[in-house]
Amino acid sequence: MTPILREIIKYVILTHHYANMNHCFTFSFVVLMLLLILDALVFKSFTMRDIKKWSPLVRAGRFQIPWKLEASLPGIFAFIRWKLGSKHVRCFCDAEHNLETIIPEFNNESRFEGLHATWLGHASLLVKMKGGVFLTDPVLNEHHSWFGIKRIMPISFSISDLPKINAVLISHNHYDHLDSATVGALNERFGDSLTWFVPMGLREWFLQSQCKNVHQLTWWEEMQFKTEEEEESFTIVCLPAQHWSWRSPLDKNKSLWCSWAIIGRNRRFFFAGDTGYCSSFQDIGNAFGPFDLAAIPIGCYEPRWFMKFQHVDPAEAVQIHLDVKARQSLGIHWGTFQMGAYEHPTEPPCKLRQVLSSRNLGNDSFLTLPQGGKAEIYPCNECARVFRAEFEKERHILSCHTGVHIWTGMRPIYPTILRSNYRFIFECELKNRILPEFFAEIEKAIDEHVLAGKIIAKNILKYIDVFNRAVTALYGNLKKYESGEFELNWRNIVEEFKKYYHSLNLVKFEQLFEVLYRVWFWIHFSNQASKFSSCEDRQRTSCQVCLEDTPSCVCQEFRSKIIEANNFLYNGTFIALDFRIPELSLLCLRIAQGMVRDKIVIVVRRLEEYEFRGLQNIFSYLRKVVFGWLYVVMGRKAEDPFEADLDLCAFLLRCEGNLQMATFEIYGRILISMVFRLIETFPTSYQIWMDLRYCMQRTGQSLDGDFINEVKKFVKLRILAQNTTTTRILILYIKLYRALHIVFIPDSLATGIFHNIQAFLKSRCNLLSRTIELFRRPRLMKYLGQDLCFSPETFPDECTSELENKFKYPVESLMDRPGIFPATGKNFITARMLIDVSGSQQEFFNEYRKILSTKLIKKFSRACPFEYHILKSIDSSANSDHLYQCQMMIRDVLNSKRFETSYSEKMIRDDVKLMPVHCIIASANSWPEFAKESLVLPDSIGEYFSKIAEYFKQWKRSRILHLLPNLGSVHLHLGMNGRQMLYIVEPCCACIILQFTNKIEISIAELCEKLKAPYKEIERSLNFWLQAGVLGSKKNASWYLRPSSNWVAQACIGRRPCEEIGIEDELTTSEEDAEDSVNEYILSLEEYWPTIRGWFQRFDSLTPDRAYLMLKILVRQKEMLTVDIVKRYFQMKLEQVMNDQKSDTEIALLCSINLTVGILVIIINTIPFSILLVMKKFNSEISLVF
């Protein structure tokens, strides 16, 4: 919500508060609602367009700031000039200040509903919010680095004194913000229960420090974090900052720097880290503000010509405080270490107070604390500041209160002379506390919660209309009652509205109307009672209306009216009249109406995010924003002299339960109604339609007979884009069974309907196949679909034209042809579709990176053109950050090929015999994490890799390669007595079979000792060779080599053969690559040889044409199978038999081959492995794959 609109709404509400309701209500209410709608449609979109979410630049592996800089990072000459300068010996005000340290109390704190932060020195803060404890930039030692910069303010506690910490936030890798000793001590104490959030590039450092739960994020990236004990959910957001990173001479800016935001259910905290001033803080405030507390650096700022780029001074810190819209800020990064700045260590707080005074801000809006001091942040700090000034003479201090019990403890501490001026008290609270709280709740509910599509449908809109009409009618009735022209009659009012809303549930309607009636009745009489609020100050019994101490004040006549009305309306139930209730109730109802309307707009815009969890969000929103506030307002009975008997809590819970049940029914019906649209689109669905209609008619008595027709009519008005429809069908298909259960259908009926729909969908419009045909990307979708665990099923060819005719737009217009035309925004359709199917953008690209990693390791540089082509097909502006990592993986493979050429030439010059080994160098930030297991390779391979490591050290200085031998694949030619068999296996399988060249029997224990591999890995590899018929096992747990006649002649046992998959007429491949693809496909037919051999024995003759028709039923890649490939495969088998010198009969039949036991020959053709590169000297890691 825009600040200007916020102030206008405050003015309207306050004006209504003071004015006579007869003149002001209609105008203020209409203006308020118009402003809320205007903000949702205009101001909101304008504000979001103004937010510029910068992403860090990455050049040559180093991060750079993307925006235009007012000052640059100082160079070596500026550094020397800075070191030669002189420092200030005292504060600029010439006063003596002391650095104060107190001992913090961590574990003696009761459960806290607000937010508080304990400053532990420098940038270390212990932040406690409801349900979570966080630590920022922990440096809890006397020295912050190995080269010995010591604290000037000693630490007053130990790490063992800290309470249970849920997460740690790291802003960057400078030694005064990241201390390895502190990290090790925290990890030792809390272990795996501690979660670390670090900027991009620092994860490997923490993994080496034995930290397990480490998450690295880049700017504007969010992550949900849930604490285990409290089960509270927080959103952790990585945000921009202007700084740099350095931990060793060679790793400058190789990791990112950032600020952080912690967004809880009720509170928001911002940690600026270490930063210079930039415009991104305004974007942070617009996107995530206002913050309840912000931690902003204020020290190490002199001289400005040297420090301006990297550190803010107090004036710029105050500007950040305003930019991020912090209600209160805390100064950090001062007075702990002697950082080399010119200002005196005690100067920053003094200068900060001067800046606050010059900008007319109170000192309590931006605090500085002693080390170990605690800042407790409540919602009413500004209110407290005003009251402290008013109550200075009588030394009364306003007791701040939590957000749960709003008015607790307020009245007893007001000075007697101000008790009659309760309008001033309420105005201050309304302006400085209540409105900001409400607006924060509004913005949070609108921006963070995604409601399930259309769950606020026609019935709920009717309730909103009832609210508006009831407010107007009740106001008019109350004014008539006051003048004696009208007698209050509750039943008449209810019957009047029932005429227009006969379909509403009567019980719910009366309950909601009762709430409105109470609120407006109180508002009317409280305004009248305010005229009599000025009474003399003497000892009396307190009146609930005017706060005067009189047993017979002038408010008694209004009290008698309240008692009379309550007796008439609620059968003797008395409700206390409190001046604070009406304004808050009015505000709650008005804002709730605006929120519901804004929610409807958001629901329409976010139909793609139609998720079941949206139901839980809407309940949380209603409970917190509507029911919660009403309960606080109406449920205060501690000071009620009438001791009301109404169980308000039970009443609100009953309303909430009824609304929840109705919403679940709406959710289920909407799911089924969208299935109606799907089924209506295709023929032969009349029986299913009748079944669903029967199902819907049995969902409840409240369902009108014309409901199905209304649903059909509504759905026809909504025309969705092709990709949205396809994704919606897939999601509905998955969730249909749940929806049928939600609307209370018997299990047997729901199961039968579900199976009918499932059979219909599979036979007539398979979901993924439909997508494939629409986008004319069969091989692309098959390529991604198989690896992403989809299950595409083909459907009859005659359905293809029928499906395409159902869409208005031509299929060719949906996406440009990548490889021929440059990628455009239309590629977003395919990308959005795949991401929706996977669940989220992050989940899709995480899974795709694993797929890409496997394919690149298998095929090396041969796969790069095609994989790059796939990336271009799903490229869009929304995916740029994720796609960058995939592009870096492909670039690594190409760079690896250049390195391979370089070291091969070097080895030839050094007379080193080359081996057929190919390597991949992988960037740790882009490639997924590799599984690391120990394995001893053959000596020749190990020596060869050691030579490669030496060459790499010369090629890239100060880096050492370590072999991870468990990754990659090995091509094995096993030969016995002249016969050779081809296998593609993992390195562990190859090393195991190599052990049988010298021994007949080997036990698992011996293999584990020789290969240094885990027992489970050895056992899995042995079972692989057992299934292949190469090895056998004995009862004494020993393994032996079986005769070659038992071997299964199959290439790539236990794996899917490597495939060269292209896109039809869109990817230009070389003749060599095409021939390799055909040869691999021919080898893959080896798995069908037992079946083909049976055909030869069963039939008198088997021509290639007949074999082609029979094989097409069996093989997976039907599009590659041709008669020519079948002929070439038969020719290959014939040559194998001729080489084995078999009889003519066997040659003619191509039957089974009898082989005699001979000498085992193993040839290792290609071994791609994984290598970890470590810069030992400076303790920095980069993962590589060879």
TrEMBL record:
Keyword Metal-binding applies: yes
PANTHER family (alphabetical): N-ACYL-PHOSPHATIDYLETHANOLAMINE-HYDROLYZING PHOSPHOLIPASE D (PTHR15032:SF4)
Residue spans crossing the bilayer: 21-43, 1147-1174
Chain ranges of the Cullin family profile domain: 790-1026
Keyword Transmembrane annotated: yes
InterPro entries reported in the protein's UniProt record: Cullin-like_AB, Cullin_homology, Cullin_homology_sf, Metallo-B-lactamas, RibonucZ/Hydroxyglut_hydro, TPR_ANAPC2, Znf_C2H2_type
Residues annotated as domain C2H2-type: 378-406
GO biological process, one term: N-acylethanolamine metabolic process
Family, similarity comment: Belongs to the cullin family.
Name assigned to this protein: N-acyl-phosphatidylethanolamine-hydrolyzing phospholipase D
Domain of life: Eukaryota
Recorded name of the encoding gene: NAPEPLD
GO molecular function, one term: ubiquitin protein ligase binding
Keywords: Membrane, Metal-binding, Transmembrane, Transmembrane helix, Zinc, Zinc-finger
CC terms in the record's Gene Ontology section: cytoplasm
